[in-house]
């Protein structure tokens, strides 16, 4: 996720901004930059000349720091940004701040502008010239356009107008040479806070950026704007009316602030899932319709598809299994799902009409990359699903669908998994729609359910304590079986993988119908069986499978749909998830299992963010 820091005060701001950016590094980024309002007193000039000096670069902050050490940048008012690419590769040109045409306004932004393409087109028609591939660059140009269209409008009013124009999310911070001592910002659905101190005021996306200067903060809400100067903070509501809000004090250490007050990144990232799911749907699910042109296939090509191959590893493989179920169900195309490391060595048949999808959160997994190369060598068109813009997989594929879960710091994949599942849902639904295989009524129902899935995920997270209690009572068991059928099966696999990778307890995920063919021999009173059994068409079958393991004295923990009391007779522990369509159960059912694995691992004092022997990007075979 991009990080923002801005300062208007009495001190030179270059190092304040730079240090703030260092404090935001934990959020993940691929480029960084700062812009400072610099006032030059030229002897022969009547008024001082104000300019915005910008230094930005791709790569680590160390690179930016080296560049900054070579340039003179004086000024007490400026903005800084770490960029996590969403539109356009991580390059210097795409790094923030971005300028308007005359380089009199500079903007940094965290979020996604859904309607940037149409805004850009309008602005180009009016003569604006763009230099980057970013969505952000439309913002300084829009502000410039508003300011030049009327004489009695200032930067703050232009920002208020801009918030009404854009669709999407954003914390937007702007400076202008016209007002060299003020910074103006606005917010829609991306975090933005104000920090206040005796030596100036700050804007930031997150507290760690400014905790060394202040402990007093004010949160800016959606559609509010704010103007800060050295000694004033003025907040306005969506109608431009002043809002009075008193700062609150925090006592967090910088380390706990980085984790948003959570004990670990993994827990923070589990809790960020409503956001990641929503962001991944943003711009793709608009006003009850799907806008999914990133698939980059013509309707003709979609109608001619006769097979889809999806390859992935680990957690991404489980997202692929969910993809198979929904694509086959909705779009009626056979889907083969395969582990990347197997695919690359087995002489796979690709052929005409075969679409190849590679899922990888990191975009760097070597086995997935090798499978992509093999598929392309055989003539397949490759679509990558990844969370990292500009990653090797993104660069080596024909097209990319980005999950917008934000950077994942914990080694264990959690929020990237739910975001990958969202992409699978959208893919299946879009293909079905183009092929005319889905009735309007059903299509509308699925879209509406997807729209409210983030709220349902939030309901589960609000009950995390209940999962903690179950984990506290079961963490000493040494054998865990996770069972599910159809939509519940990939969830069972994922639940087992989460548990084994962070707690180091042996766990297996199984299709429940397979128990009789071997694994039931494992079951005794020393086993915990976790049954994923939300309401769906195999519900009754799952009930029988659970009775079988209960008869062997296993401890039973069931994940059921809200209001389902049927498993009370044999389950020792029950967790209810909100009801949804059966195809969408998986994205909700996995959340309690992520939490379960987390709390068991914490009981065992494991390092959940960096489990032993594992890495975030697996770049070796
Ligand atoms: C599990 C986990 C791994 C990854 C796997 C693939 O929590 O993180 O199983 O899912 O290594 O990684 P990507 O998705 O980056 O290709």
Descriptive report:
This protein has 621 residues and is of the alpha/beta class. 35% of the residues lie in helices and 23% in strands. It is built from 19 helices and 27 strands. The strands form 5 sheets. The chain has an 8-stranded antiparallel beta sheet, with helices on one face. A 7-stranded antiparallel beta sheet has the order 5-6-7-8-12-13-14, covered by helices on one side. Strands 19-18-20-21-22 form a 5-stranded parallel beta sheet, with helices on both faces. α8 packs parallel to α14 (415-434), α8 runs antiparallel to α15 and α17 (488-503) packs parallel to α19 (585-603). It is globular, with a radius of gyration of 26 Å. The chain starts with a strand and ends in an 18-residue tail after the last helix. The model has no long low-confidence stretch (mean pLDDT 93). Bound molecules: fructose -6-phosphate.
Q: Report the strand count.
A: 27
Number of helices: 19
Q: Roughly how many Å is the radius of gyration?
A: 26 Å
Mean pLDDT rating? 93
- Percent helix, as a range, is 25-40%
Alpha-beta content class: alpha/beta
Oligomer: single chain
End-to-end separation in angstroms reads 29 Å
Biggest beta sheet attributes: 8 strands, antiparallel
Low-confidence stretches: none
Strand content: 15-25%
**Spatial order of the strands in the main sheet?**
3-2-4-1-10-9-11-15
The bound ligands are: fructose -6-phosphate
Q: Which shape, going by the Cα principal axes?
A: globular
């Amino acid at each position: 996720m991009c990080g923002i820091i801005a300062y208007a005060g009495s001190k030179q701001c270059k190092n304040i901004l730079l240090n703030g950016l260092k404090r935001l590094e934990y959020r993940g980024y691929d480029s960084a930059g700062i812009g400072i309002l610099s006032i030059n007193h030229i002897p022969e000039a009547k008024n001082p000349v104000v300019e915005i000096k910008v230094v930005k670069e791709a790569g680590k902050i160390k690179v930016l720091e080296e560049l900054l050490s070579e340039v003179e940048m004086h000024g007490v008012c400026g903005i800084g940004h770490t960029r996590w690419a969403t539109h356009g590769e991580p390059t210097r040109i795409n790094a923030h701040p971005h300028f308007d045409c005359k380089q009199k306004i500079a903007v940094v932004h965290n979020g996604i502008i859904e309607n940037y393409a149409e805004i850009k087109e309008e602005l180009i028609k009016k003569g604006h010239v763009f230099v980057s591939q970013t969505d952000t660059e439309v913002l300084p140009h829009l502000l410039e356009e508003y300011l030049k269209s009327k004489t009695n409008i200032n930067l703050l009013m232009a920002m208020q107008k801009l918030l009404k124009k854009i669709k999407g999310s954003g914390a937007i911070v702007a400076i202008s040479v016209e007002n060299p001592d003020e910074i103006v910002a606005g917010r829609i659905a991306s975090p933005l806070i104000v920090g206040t101190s005796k030596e100036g005021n700050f804007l930031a996306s997150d507290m760690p950026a400014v905790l060394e200067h202040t402990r007093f903060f004010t949160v800016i809400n959606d559609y509010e704007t704010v103007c800060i100067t050295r000694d004033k903070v003025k907040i306005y509501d969506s109608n431009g009316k002043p809002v009075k809000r008193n700062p609150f004090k925090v006592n967090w250490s910088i380390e706990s602030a980085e984790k948003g007050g959570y004990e670990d990144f993994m827990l923070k990232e589990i809790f960020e899932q409503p956001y990641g799911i929503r962001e991944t749907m943003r711009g793709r699910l608009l006003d009850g319709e799907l806008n999914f042109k990133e698939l980059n296939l013509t309707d003709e090509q979609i109608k001619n598809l006769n097979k889809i191959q999806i390859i992935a590893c680990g957690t991404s493989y489980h997202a692929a299994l969910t993809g198979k179920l929904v694509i086959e169900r909705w779009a009626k195309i056979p889907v083969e799902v395969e582990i990347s490391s197997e695919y690359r060595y087995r002489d796979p048949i690709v052929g005409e009409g075969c679409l190849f999808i590679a899922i990888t959160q990191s975009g760097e997994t070597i086995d997935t990359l090798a499978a992509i190369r093999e598929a392309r060598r055989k003539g397949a068109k490759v679509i990558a699903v990844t969370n990292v813009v500009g990653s090797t997989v993104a660069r080596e594929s024909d097209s990319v669908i980005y999950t917008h879960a934000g950077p994942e710091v914990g080694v264990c994949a959690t929020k990237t998994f739910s975001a990958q599942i969202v992409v699978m849902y959208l893919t299946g639904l879009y293909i079905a729609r183009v092929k005319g295989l889905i009735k309007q009524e059903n299509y509308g129902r699925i879209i509406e359910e997807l729209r409210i899935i983030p709220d349902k995920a939030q309901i589960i997270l609000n009950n995390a304590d209940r999962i903690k209690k179950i984990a506290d009572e079961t963490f000493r068991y040494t054998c865990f079986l996770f069972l599910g059928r159809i939509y519940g099966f990939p969830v069972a696999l994922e639940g087992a993988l989460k548990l084994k990778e962070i707690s180091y307890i042996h766990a297996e995920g199984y299709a429940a119908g397979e128990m009789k063919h071997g694994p039931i021999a494992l079951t005794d009173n020393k086993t915990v069986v976790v049954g994923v059994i939300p309401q769906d068409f195999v519900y009754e079958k799952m009930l029988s499978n659970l009775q079988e393991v209960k008869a062997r004295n296993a401890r039973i923990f069931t994940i059921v749909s809200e209001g389902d009391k049927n498993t009370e007779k044999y389950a020792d522990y029950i967790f209810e998830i909100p009801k949804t369509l059966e195809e969408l159960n998986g994205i909700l059912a996995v959340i309690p299992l992520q939490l379960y694995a987390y709390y068991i691992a914490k009981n065992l004092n494991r390092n959940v963010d960096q489990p032993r022997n594992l890495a975030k990007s697996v770049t070796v075979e």
